[in-house]
Amino acid sequence: MTIKVKSYSTTKDSETFFEEKEFVMEESGLLTKQSVRVETTLEYQTILGFGGAFTEAASTTLDKMSDENRKIVMDAYFKDNKYNFCRSHINSCDFSTGNYAYTETPGDVELKDFTLERDLKSLIPMIKDAYAINEEIILFASPWSPPAWMKTTNMMNKGGKLKDEYRQVWADYYCRYIKEYEKLGIKVWGLTIQNEPEATQTWDSCIYTGAEERDFIKNDLGPQLEKEGLSHVKIIIWDHNRDQMVERGRIVLSDPEAAKYVWGTGFHWYSGNNFSNPSLLHDMFPDKQLIFTEGCLEMGWYDGDWSMAERYGESVISDLNNWTTAWTDWNLILDETGGPNHVGNFCKAPIMCDTQKDEVMFLPAYYYLGHFSRYIKRGATRVLTATTHDKLEAVSCVNPDGEVVTVLMNSTDDDQVIGFRHNEHVAEVTVKARSMTTFVFESKNNSY
């Protein structure tokens, strides 16, 4: 008995993306020296989805584009790439056009002046446009800083801490944000406690030690969510780099009174790879989930170098292979400067928009991310995948309909001939140099 396989490839220096081919796997045969093995009987975590972040920078950039190009961008992400797991910010972030909070009235402990007026200008319309294309989007939100008047430094930028007397007010603030968004038809699935809680940034930032984050969850935010009927909202800790995630997770999750409110841990990629750390934290607390909450490449306008795409590919494959359930990119789009950004912290996005020329540029990273988000469906289960070449990286999942998907990246400068084994079926396959390929295997529930 044979099975059919469809492959979709994106290759450096080629103008063809997701190039489709088909081949047949035999029920027995020899493997070449280097191989990829997929074994669907060994199952791991369930996948929630893939996506990027709605930021004021992205939404204001989008508003400067023509209606035609606005549609091209939104369809590219939410129709073609099928993005369904996204992030947004509570109050301003560095990728806002300036600092702002939903109430800037000092001492407004009852949140009487709380307003989403700033978000309603462009951010919320962008989110609603995305939901109109894909109603299955999961949205989580992260604060970069409380309002200045709640902080020890009396400013949103350059770190500082939440004043003790405003801990309960800040917990109320999260709940108010969730309810105001829900009034607009936008469901907030989850919250991170604080973006990058160990970094004093020149932009909006706020410092929490592990103990402070733990205590805020168990004494303030967790109980307040329950009190206001919002216990379904997922609480995600850390939201910073992989390097320290095990220690932060240990501090918070070792406390049963804090842990009972916590759904999982979020992490970024800005301080080394440390790809094994998610697995280590999973081994310590197997009942808690892991999500990648932010990653991008810095330094503004981007020239299309393929290494950016491969950075994304390596991270997604490695994170999924280490128990990560969802993967979220940073800004969905940025303008020709790599912004706007109110402190000049310019970065790259998979889609860049020249607002002066009304032009949209798709960078290779967009297509590489699509190799996961287009084919691995929500509810898929990761299964064992092993490779014999350290520059051939792969991950496999079984979709809810039984369809098996393997995503394979070849980051070498040469075409590679591999022996591909899927359970008991084998085939010899050539993967192009500097390429990403998604293989979709025929199953009893899908045939080609």
Topology:
Blueprint: E1 3-11, E2 19-25, E3 35-46, E4 49-53, H1 56-63, H2 67-80, E5 85-90, H3 117-121, H4 123-133, E6 138-143, H5 167-183, E7 190-192, H6 210-227, E8 234-241, H7 245-253, H8 256-259, E9 262-268, H9 277-284, E10 289-294, H10 307-320, E11 326-331, E12 333-335, E13 351-354, E14 359-362, H11 364-373, E15 381-387, E16 392-398, E17 404-410, E18 416-422, E19 425-431, E20 435-441
Parallel strand pairs: 3-18, 4-11, 5-6, 6-7, 7-8, 8-9, 9-10, 10-11, 12-13
Antiparallel strand pairs: 1-2, 1-20, 3-15, 13-14, 15-16, 16-17, 17-20, 18-19
Helix pairs in contact: 1-4, 2-4, 5-6, 6-7, 7-9, 10-11
Written description of the protein model:
The radius of gyration is 22 Å and the shape is globular. The protein is α/β, with parallel strands linked by helices. A nine-stranded mixed β-sheet has the order 2-1-20-17-16-15-3-18-19, with helices on one face. Strands 4-11-10-9-8-7-6-5 form an eight-stranded parallel β-sheet. It contains eleven helices and 20 strands. The longest helix is centred in the middle third of the chain and has 18 residues. Helix 5 crosses helix 6, helix 7 packs parallel to helix 9 and helix 10 runs parallel beside helix 11. It has two domains: 105 residues, Immunoglobulin-like (Sandwich), CATH 2.60.40; 325 residues, Glycosidases (TIM Barrel, Alpha-Beta Barrel).
